[in-house]
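Continuing from the previous page of notes. For each protein in this section, the sequence appears first, followed by its structure tokens. Read the first protein now.
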Amino acid sequence: MYLTHLECPRCDREHDAGRLTNLCDCGSPLLARYDLTAVAAAVTPERFGLRPADLWRYRELLPVADERHVTTLGEGWTPLWRASAYGREIGVGDLIVKDEGLTPTGSFKARGAAVGVSRARELGVRRIAMPTNGNAGAAWATYATRAGLASTIAMPVDAPTICRRECVAAGADLHLVDGLIGDAGRWVAELVAGSDGTVFDAGTLREPYRLEGKKTMGYEIVEQLGWQVPDVIIYPTGGGVGLIGIHKAMHELRTLGWVGDKLPRLVAVQSTGCAPVVRAFAAGEDRVRPWVDAHTVAFGITVPAPLGDELILTALRESSGTALAVDDAEILADLRDFAAREGLLLCPEGAACLTAARHLRAGGWIRAGERVVVLNTGSGLKYPETVDVSGVPVG
């Protein structure tokens, strides 16, 4: 294993990667660091094509030392779909969708769960607990069971019903909270504090290894494009782990010498009903202020105060990116328009990226001829209410 240590991006303190760890003492999430010089000497990009088509093909850049602890359901290596018809309509001729809806649990959360659970198992965890907006809880419950671990999941009552059912089917202890994900987080914090160390907090960015699974989206995009980077990557941003992970992946790839100096401009997309990152970015602030009365049809990005706010804002600014809030009505309209033109039903969070691409091209931020990758973070089949069939005759 090439993992060397954990690093705090706020205070620069190093932590022992061999110990079970949550946040730094300063309150910041921790980042896994690797001996990239040794990785570059051990493997070349050409080798990955000879390996299985899952995220574990990048094992030198992942934190699990003993392959016996790897917990997998075949996650990763999701396709890139060219969306030529919709792209022409909005003026983005080279529009590509990375479809995370085809992962084992139907969303990109399977990546973080696979790596996070594997490392937790390796470090001796027996029960994980976490708050969730739905898909992450479903994924972590599923992978915990696969690994032989117990799980406790706290979820807002308004989260997608299918996610609740997935957790129960996987044998998780499910707790429904009348509120938002922050309220679920407070419930989990109380549970962990009273557990005498028997329950591990696996909440978003409260452990460092979910991020390592999510970063493989960045590796895959580059490898699938022939080891070339796109001009723009558009990402629906709630907790922001995927955006932070892709940013981390791009910098690791550049340090390894596998891509050039030019990296993609990253775009964080939020809903006008919950846009703390957009507000902070526009104001030039380094931290977000909690969003009051958060609500959006894109439930997965309903995160009023993301723990990783500093890392999200850093990723946007270092990549010369931007942040944009889009309206729920436009999200649903673009979701249906895209499905009618391209034959792919996106989740609302993924559709928000299409709305953002349309606005950014119309305003000139996305330039003619640029290659744009949007992330569809989950299967649209989990959100059947996004398509109205009340006026369609049947039978």
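Done with the first. The second protein uses the same format. Note its length before scrolling.
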Amino acid sequence: MSIKKLAGQTVYYGLSNIVSKLLNYFLTPFYLGILSRASFGEMSNVYAYIPFANIVLTYGMETAFFRFAKQENKSHVLGTSTISLLISTISITILLLLLRGPVINSYTGELAGLTGHPAFYTYIVLLMAFDALTAIPFAQLRLEGRPVRYAAIRVAGILTTIFFNIFFLVICPKLAAAGHQWVPGLHNGSDQTGYIYLSNMLGSAVTLVLFLPQIRQIEWKFDPALWKKMLHYALPLIIVGMAGMVNETFDRAWFLPQFLPGNNMEAKKEIIALYSANYKLAILITMFIQAFRLGAEPFFFKQAESRDPQKVYARIMKLFVVMLCFMFLFVSLYLNVWKIFLRVPFYYQGMRIVPVLLLANMFLGIYYNLTIWFKLTDRTKTGAIITLITAVLAFLLNYWWIPVMGYYGAALATMVCYFVQMVVCYVWGQRYYPIPYHLPKLITYIGLAVLTYYVFSWLNAKVLSPGDIYAMKPLSLAVATLLFGAYAWFIFRMEKKEFARMPFIGKYIK
């Protein structure tokens, strides 16, 4: 597969992923407008735990599928991995449903707003189960290079989720007010969050149904010897994933509730809501990272069989970092515009964490790119060690900083952890699988992007808009655009030859 084909596939994967993330973009201000602060905090807490459960439910089998499909009989790998996930998902789902009472009546259940609402818990468990069962079918489409079908199914599930959100939260209340007794009644915020979980569950269910024709074509044969090899490869990835989630979502799930001073449950829910709402503004970087991973992971495994793949990996990293820097500036320089997304003025006070989280996600994206070395060399245990180190660091930094700096401490801890994770992975990887990354350029591009933001931030606070740094003032927007254009001009001058080789845009560059 060429880099041009990778770019083409990433466009399709990116479109479906962008639609998915834009769903969160569009639904978040919708939720902020109808949910109380505490209810939004409860929902944010629930969705912070779901990635942990997804890691357990899939236990690295998706990555193992990519790895072994290139070495073994593909149909055997597909059948073995699918049967493994099917049995484990059903077993874990039954176990979670049996534990419903203790979970929803725990402190965590109360913080998540599940106490007294067992149906909400059931929706969440089924949502996670449906997502786990579609992991291998989605991976199969990626491996076979079928991004159009991948995007179509992904978008269909998303549109279903949107439809039911609108139906339950907008149409049903109007029908009930008009005297229609058959529609569900929404009496308070808790009812509303329950229907949000139900909408997401139905979207995941539709996705699974759309995969049924593909699933029926699987050769249902289980190879125990192959399964043991796949499991040996995949199990360390659980530690990698779980420890990674400690950095990525545990701030909302556990660190903030535990380390914020005081015992006021409602106040903690509101702070989680404030932090989570502003966290969403970093989504433009995360959506690109996810789209890149979807297209790049199978590409990297295939490219490993070619001659001198390290040079290709280095080139991709450089282009990847350039895009991350542009996205960092696109959001951070225009926060006075992006605040419209938050709708409610209460959430504006949290916008100071957005540049920190954007930078954190830049480091995370680079780390994901770097991890190819231990996946190609079958040293997945190394990845587990790296993420365990940063998970411990995350615990220590959040324990130290949240009581002192509040939610800003959680954002700062996230950034530091991702930076350390990135550096350790790079240094370790160069020992076992050296890749000639353009390190001086990468450091220059990232450093200049951060410097550009801080120059603008200083000018905005001291000269352009000292009374309200997030005010929508023409002069602030003009200076932000001027600085963005200057950065783009510098990058273009440095990488003109590289851009000329790119698909789509290359033909316009002379």
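What the second structure shows: The mean pLDDT is 87. Residues 27-252 form one domain. We return to this in next week's lecture.
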